[in-house]
């Protein structure tokens, strides 16, 4: 019985050594490592930026009272010519009808 166990052990040892030898890869002279691909740059997606909230009474900042107390479009008096503040259209009556304007230096 011990002969059979000894033979089985030797046979399993040889089969183990043979399988280990077969599993080794053949050695090639100075094999260069495989180059990795370049990393991709992550570009962040643009975030939606909400515009500033417009106040409900902002439109009234473009108007001012005239000499009678009625709200009229504001006029900017500049050295290059007067114009309406709301749309930049020229105001032609600064020299002929000065009663339309209230003399103010600032609000």
Characterise this structure.
The structure is a single chain. This protein has one helix at 2-23; strands spanning 63-65, 71-73, 75-76, 83-84. By secondary structure, it is an alpha+beta fold. The strands form two sheets. It has a two-stranded antiparallel ribbon with strand order 1-2. It has a two-stranded antiparallel ribbon with strand order 3-4. β1 and β2 form a beta hairpin. It is rod-shaped. The model has no long low-confidence stretch (mean pLDDT 77).
Summary keywords:
two-stranded antiparallel sheet; alpha+beta; 107 residues; 4 strands
Order of helices and strands: HEEEE
Low-confidence stretches: none
| Structural classification | alpha+beta
What is the helix fraction of residues, given as a range? 10-25%
Distance between the termini: 117 Å
> Globular, elongated, flat, extended or rod-shaped: what is the shape?
rod-shaped
What is the CA-based Rg, rounded? 46 Å
Please state how the strands of the largest beta sheet are arranged side by side: 1-2
Largest sheet: 2 strands, antiparallel
Q: Total strand count, please?
A: 4
Q: What is the overall pLDDT average?
A: 77
Strand content: 5-15%
The helix count comes to 1
Question: What is the strand and helix layout of this fold?
Answer:
Elements (H helix, E strand, L loop, with lengths): L1 H22 L39 E3 L5 E3 L1 E2 L6 E2 L23
Antiparallel strand pairs: 1-2, 3-4
